Amino acid sequence: xxxxxxxxxxxxxxxxxxxxxxxxxxxxxxxxxxxxxxxxxxxxxxxxxxxxxxxxxxxxxxxxxxxxxxxxxxxxxxxxxxxxxxxxxxxxxxxxxxxxxxxxxxxxxxxxxxxxxxxxxxx
Length: 123
What we know:
Layout: E1 21-22, H1 24-34, H2 38-45, E2 46-49, E3 52-55, E4 66-67, E5 71-72, H3 80-84, H4 89-92, H5 95-104, H6 114-121
Antiparallel strand pairs: 1-3, 2-3, 4-5
C-alpha cells in the first residue's frame, strides 16, 4: 500500500487565516519552547475568537511561526491541527474534500486511493 502522506515541508498548509487553535497545554508548551511567559506568547502571537485561542498570521498570510528558509519555527511543539494535517475529520470523511486537499498539498500521494488514505488516517 502506498504511503498516503509524506510532508514536503513546503508551507502550503501554513498559509491562510485560519484554524490553528490551541489547547491550554499547547499554549504553555509553545511559550516554554520560545522561552517566554505564556502571557507574552498569547499577547504577541495569538488572537481570541469564539472562545478559543488561535495562532495569528503575519502580513504575508502565513502562520507567524512559518519562515520560508527555516520552515516551522515551532515544529517540535507544533499544535494539534498541524500534527493532524492532512487527516482532518472533514477530509477523511469526504472524498471531495480529500481531492481538494490532494490538489493543494504536494505531500498527499496522488497515486494513493481515498480508501488507503482513510485507512492510514488511523495509524
